[in-house]
Amino acid sequence: MASKAIFFSFFIVSAVCLSSLAGFAAADADDLDRFQIQGSVYCDTCRVQFVTRLSKFLEGAKVKLECRSRTNGTVTLTKEAVTDKSGSYKMEVTGDHEEEVCELVLVESPDSGCSDVSKEAYLRNAAKISLTANDGIVSHETRIVNPLGFMVKTPSADCAAAFKEIGIVPDVTF
Question: How far is CA 101 from CA 26, 70, 127, in A?
Answer without folding.
Answer: 28, 6, 11
